[in-house]
């Protein structure tokens, strides 16, 4: 099948590459010429494990192409995927101007009947609107069907998820169009759930909002655990063994970030508001998520009378491991606070430092490895649970830091193991380890 994907951001590039891997001929369109040149040589503009290799392979086998030219990209194509961004507007709603532009570009260029598939996360009703935008602007007399096909890919595991997802959601008002999209996806071997367009649009928001709810829920439980002397890890484990609850997304920490959860939760509150429904639960989820970063900072401020002149080692900047994505990363707010308090911040992240430099306070000092960050530090903060940090010998903190005080925002270490070292260890929702041999110079 000849397919065109518009937008080579995270979703578009992964979708296009994976569709080419299962045998389709895919052209990806982007407006950025430099980016297109880079991608033509098999270089992904984003950090995603396995993506470069897959791109190179399919470019070589002549199934994956990149262009800035809409005419070329839409020529003779049977199916067009829209995968452009829907950034958050100031009021929390989704900005659909890129999607609208793609609709107009499609209308101006298609010369045969097409199915337009929306991958971008768009508010309920948007697909009907896109169809109208295209039909209103059509240059040739062709039939356009529209299908909502939301993505559920996790950054850092997007290739794996493309081939091992739990379901593919196909929302269409036309059975033929739905069947053709099902057919395209067949080689992935993933069950296809067919429904109407508006339900498909809603599934994406509801799924992300529910996962965000799980995280905020366990974070609140974690805060209570700290006060009543329970251990949130044990609680999550015991809860998760109930199949109705499930064990995933119950890791307490400093909250969710990234390109989806913060944006989609706010958009869903907005979507509900538009139909005069007050989504109180989701508002609480968003509020709790913001509070979670403050909780770590409050603990730090309680522990140290002042952070003025103190060296703070920050381990991890990306919003989660295995990505260089800094969008809505907890590290942004946390480092800003540390700088305001007069701390000397030495930060290290295995891959996100270049992106971090664009969004984080310029007074943060970047170092090239963990040991350098920890060297003579007064306190270490773990903000992203990279394996590199999880695998650290606890002795490394002891050997390098001036005083080994650790605030672990991602529960990377087992307190039972930490107890064997001369460190003071505070994590989220678990009893702190305070080794009495530590000199308290805070
Ligand atoms: C998410 C969804 O998983 C995906 O289906 C959707 O399409 C896009 O958004 P992603 O943003 O890549 O994917 O990250 P995910 O792995 O889901 O984690 C999101 C955030 O939640 C991260 O900041 C992570 O650290 C946090 N998280 C996740 C927790 O704090 N606790 C958990 O138990 C799980």
UniProtKB/TrEMBL annotation:
Binding site for substrate: 152-155, 204, 249-253, 257, 320
Pfam families linked to this entry: UDPG_MGDP_dh (PF00984), UDPG_MGDP_dh_C (PF03720), UDPG_MGDP_dh_N (PF03721)
Major enzyme class: oxidoreductase
Pathway participation: Nucleotide-sugar biosynthesis; UDP-alpha-D-glucuronate biosynthesis; UDP-alpha-D-glucuronate from UDP-alpha-D-glucose: step 1/1
InterPro entries: 6-PGluconate_DH-like_C_sf, NAD(P)-bd_dom_sf, UDP-Glc/GDP-Man, UDP-Glc/GDP-Man_DH_C, UDP-Glc/GDP-Man_DH_C_sf, UDP-Glc/GDP-Man_DH_dimer, UDP-Glc/GDP-Man_DH_N, UDPglc_DH_bac
GO MF, one annotated term: NAD binding
Listed SMART domains: UDPG_MGDP_dh_C
Active-site residues annotated for this sequence: 260 (nucleophile)
EC number: 1.1.1.22
Keyword NAD found: yes
Record-linked Gene3D superfamilies: Cytochrome c1, transmembrane anchor, C-terminal, NAD(P)-binding Rossmann-like Domain
BP terms from Gene Ontology: polysaccharide biosynthetic process
Sequence ranges assigned to domain UDP-glucose/GDP-mannose dehydrogenase C-terminal in this UniProt record: 313-415
Residues at which NAD(+) binds: 30, 35, 86, 121, 155, 263, 327
Protein name: UDP-glucose 6-dehydrogenase
Source organism of this protein record: Metabacillus arenae
Keywords noted in UniProt: NAD, Oxidoreductase
